[in-house]
């Protein structure tokens, strides 16, 4: 410092060195140019390198040495030169081309025209005349960058392997759930046929022990299991669609064939804020869409859907005969 105290430079500013060779970065600092050289003379230390470039495939990092004001000024000049600035911040990496940088400005490389180095030099000024880094230093920097890129690629490959394993496990679980659902639907169909035959034929003989409780009908239990399985499968395969009210009950109890219903849900899961052309806006509502779905017997099924603010859809499955009541209910439904 000019008062004789030793100083250290941090983030482009000089701070007096305190007890224990520490600096207080919360105290006001000064520009290094205002400090005396280490030998106490007033001779200028000579020009120093103020910027460097790390070029990527589509982007580049312009490294700046100096204060935050120097960084902001450099960012402004780069914008004026026509470069698209993505972001800026403190540089935490190693020195590059002999520059111990304090900041970086991340820019998009120009696709054509002047080389990036020429654009930066035209904006920030040429480097002071000084001996450039040796070939050995350049090779060392190149090796460090290659090692860093290799480590990043290895980390990405490991993450991708984990993601592939998870997706395979999810696909296996979904396939098992679909098989269970198909089996339960077959069980329910057989139970309905059996009940139909019993209803048109002779009544089943009462058990010899009159005090023994009669067995519970099979169809309600199977129906509940089917509803649970449908809900589980849809939650696993179509997590972006949330079914409202008694949609599962309607699907399992009122639809002979649910293929059209499943196709409509898949359309929602693959759509963003607007569903495909097969959907139309629902009259008298805000944000709700309507689609006709087959029940397996006619086209009287109705599926209503609305996009959620955080992504995904909420949907209600019902019947054409309930449309007026359903529309009134949808109007009251908060977002």
Report on the architecture of this protein.
Residues 138-194 form a coiled coil. Keywords: Coiled coil. Residues 196-220 are annotated as: Disordered. Residues 202-213 have a biased composition (Low complexity). There is one protein chain. The chain has 335 residues and is α+β, with helices and mostly antiparallel strands. It has 4 domains: 1-46, no CATH class; 51-126, no CATH class; 151-198 and 220-237; 239-335, YaeB-like fold, CATH 3.30.2310. It is 41% helix and 17% strand. The protein has 7 helices and 11 strands. It has helices spanning 68-80, 116-124, 135-200, 218-237, 247-254, 259-269, 323-332; strands spanning 7-10, 13-16, 51-55, 59-64, 85-90, 103-108, 241-243, 280-281, 288-293, 301-307, 313-319. The strands form 3 sheets. It has a 5-stranded mixed β-sheet, sandwiched between helices. A hairpin with a 2-residue loop joins β1 (7-10) and β2. The chain is elongated, with a radius of gyration of 36 Å. Mean pLDDT is 76; it is low at 40-46 and 201-219.
